[in-house]
């Protein structure tokens, strides 16, 4: 019984680690796409013009 729990726990932890890596990759890809689209610059300009945006 303990071995089954340990195996399942290891599998769950492995899947969580894999999901974390995939989410990190996704965040990086989204940031790259936003940079390519110039979204960050537009946001920076809007914040500078609108004092309530902060």
SSE blueprint and pairings:
Elements lengths: L1 H36 L1 H11 L5
Summed up:
InterPro entries: HS1-bd. By secondary structure, this protein is mainly α. The protein is built from two helices and no strands.
Explain what the structure shows:
The protein is mainly α and 54 residues long. The protein is built from 2 helices and no strands. It has helices spanning 2-37, 39-49. The protein is rod-shaped. The model has no long low-confidence stretch (mean pLDDT 85).
Task: Supply database-style keywords.
54 residues; rod-shaped
User: From the alpha-carbon coordinates, what is the Rg to the nearest angstrom?
Assistant: 20 Å
What structural class do helix, strand and pairing data support? mainly alpha
End-to-end span in angstroms? 54 Å
- How do the helices and strands follow one another from N- to C-terminus? HH
* Oligomeric assembly: single chain
> For the residues shown, what is the average pLDDT?
85
Q: What is the share of helical residues?
A: over 70%
Q: How can the largest sheet be summarized?
A: none
How many helices? 2
Low-confidence region ranges:
none
């Amino acid at each position: 019984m303990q071995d089954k729990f340990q195996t399942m726990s290891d599998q769950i932890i492995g899947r969580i680690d894999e999901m974390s890596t995939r989410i990190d990759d996704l965040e990086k890809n989204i940031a790259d796409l936003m940079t390519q689209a110039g979204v960050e610059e537009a946001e920076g300009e809007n914040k500078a013009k609108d004092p309530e945006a902060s």
